[in-house]
Write a structure and sequence with these properties.
Penicillin V Acylase, Chain A; about 280 residues
């Protein structure tokens, strides 16, 4: 992910609300959100090159998401996939704090990352460019390609938009529309991360449309106080057009995980078969 906006323990109905954009090369093979054939309790998209994921949740309410820390000069060739950190947590049984403490000593082997890991009771953050494991306080937060709540323009814009949205009744579609903002930020407000000015401009938008690299998908997730989970993912083509939107419902109290259906770009709804996903 390259933009993760979330509200943690700050809404009267939802313990967690997430709105996130995944930015990646369109040449990297990926599977859309679905139940993993090798771990059916995991609902997530999947990186078909390395087997991990960028964001996911389980029936039990285990949640994790990751973003890259943008520092081009520090990139290591041959480093392990950061998406494995998300997948390993979702498949595992460690409490969030225990998991992050366990992986922290090996974190330097990865390229720069920001990792969120939580369950129904707690949420923690770890960056291998930060000061160690941090407990996330209740509130509205934003994470892009720097540390948690770094005031980059799109993070501040997104946090304000999410906070406003939470003041009224909302649905997953409202979160997806919020994430569709392609506004390029002013040059004077851009961060200096080592990328060229042209790329800093392109990457400053909440949703990036930049040819072969850009926002591949947007995710809207809500976890209610009773454990009811709603998950929607909208996928995009390189030109920024929508290719598909998939929705899932994970009800509490033993109900069956089910797809809510898919919507094609023309708005037509249709049932969606959950495909087995390659590891």
């Amino acid at each position: 992910m390259c933009l993760i906006l979330f509200a943690w323990q700050t809404h009267p109905r939802y313990r967690l609300v997430v709105a996130a954009n995944r930015d990646e090369s369109f040449e990297r093979p990926s599977a859309p959100a679905g139940l993993w054939s090798d771990c059916p309790q995991v609902l997530a998209g999947r990186d078909l090159e390395a087997g991990g994921t960028w964001l996911g949740i389980t029936r039990a309410g285990r949640f994790a998401a990751i973003s890259n820390y943008r520092a081009p000069a520090e990139k290591q060739s041959g480093a392990p996939s950061r998406g494995a950190l998300v997948g390993d947590f979702l498949r595992g049984a460690d409490a969030p704090l225990a998991y992050l403490k366990r992986i922290a000593p090996q974190a330097a082997a990865f390229n720069g990352f920001n990792l969120l890991a939580g369950d129904r009771d707690s949420l923690y953050f770890l960056s291998n460019r930060g000061a160690g494991v941090e407990r996330v306080a209740p509130g509205v937060h934003g994470l892009s390609n720097h540390l948690l709540d770094t005031p980059w323009p799109k993070v501040e814009r997104g946090k304000a938009a999410l906070a406003t949205l939470l003041e009224r009744p909302f649905e997953g579609e409202d979160l997806l529309e919020m994430l569709a903002d392609t506004t390029i930020m002013a040059d004077g407000a851009l961060p200096a991360t080592g990328a060229s000015l042209d790329w800093e401009r392109r990457l400053s938008a909440m949703r990036i449309v930049a040819g072969t690299y850009g926002t591949r998908c947007s995710t809207a997730l809500s976890v209610a106080a009773d454990g009811d989970i709603r998950f929607a993912e909208r996928s995009y083509a390189p030109d920024g057009s929508t290719t598909e939107t998939v929705r899932f419902h994970l009800p509490p109290a033993g109900g069956a995980i089910s797809p809510d259906g898919a919507t094609s770009p023309d708005g037509e709804s249709r049932p969606r078969q959950i495909r087995p996903l390659a590891r």
